[in-house]
Amino acid sequence: MNIPETLKYSSDDEWVKKDGDTYLIGITDFAQDQLGDIVFVELPEVGDEFDKDGGYGSVESVKTVSDLLAPIACKVVEVNPALEDAPETLNSDPYGEGWILKVEATNEADLDELLSSGDYQKRVDEA
Description:
The relative contact order is 0.26. By secondary structure, the protein is of the alpha+beta class. The protein has 4 helices and 9 strands, in the order E-E-E-H-E-E-E-E-E-H-H-E-H. The two termini are 13 Å apart. It has a 6-stranded antiparallel sheet with strand order 1-2-3-9-8-5. It has a 3-stranded antiparallel sheet with strand order 4-6-7. The chain is globular, with a radius of gyration of 13 Å. It has one domain (8-108): CATH 2.40.50.100. Its cofactor is (R)-lipoate. Belongs to the GcvH family.
């Protein structure tokens, strides 16, 4: 299971990466593996705002539909347009081309509550 040390993680299997003044958000390798083949991604609109743990969309796979929950309070500044035509990118490259949102943090303190790669690895091992 790939768990990059440079990212922060939520207990809901999403990752956060600092990207200049903004943050990228996506689902983890563990999440995409559990979901199976992803066939559709419902994304929010640019400008939408979400509280920490607020639902911002969903991922549909051949197995199930899972809600996407914001790992930090944020305002959406960009959504990944590639996911509309190629949702399977979440399976093939969850930490790269499979990013879901680019956001501005609206509560920086939320970042302190995210898991390190080591803590996330422990969570995955217990799953």
